[in-house]
Design brief:
The chain is an alpha+beta fold. It is built from 3 helices and 2 strands, in the order H-H-E-E-H. The two termini are 25 Å apart.
């Protein structure tokens, strides 16, 4: 998944922020609890205010992530 995520991060730079969490870092516990981080990998697409839009578990097709980003960015206020 790393190559896919990094490719999408470069493509959507300035439009979608990608945040990576180390599940072993105790500093991330609050965020992991907020989004019920219990699988790896876990992708959570959130609004700027932290409201969850969509989540994916495990290996995700690039097209699915791209479709979610494009739909969000095309929507009013996206």
């Amino acid at each position: 998944m790393k190559p896919v995520v990094h490719r999408l991060e470069a493509e959507y730079w300035g439009e979608v922020d990608f945040v990576y969490l180390d599940r072993d870092d105790r500093a991330n516990r609050d965020v992991m609890n907020r989004y019920d981080f219990s699988y790896q990998p876990l992708f959570v697409f959130v609004e700027p205010d932290g409201t969850e839009i969509q989540r994916w578990f495990g290996s995700v097709p690039e097209a699915d992530l791209r479709a979610a980003f494009d739909a969000y960015l095309a929507a009013p206020g996206g």
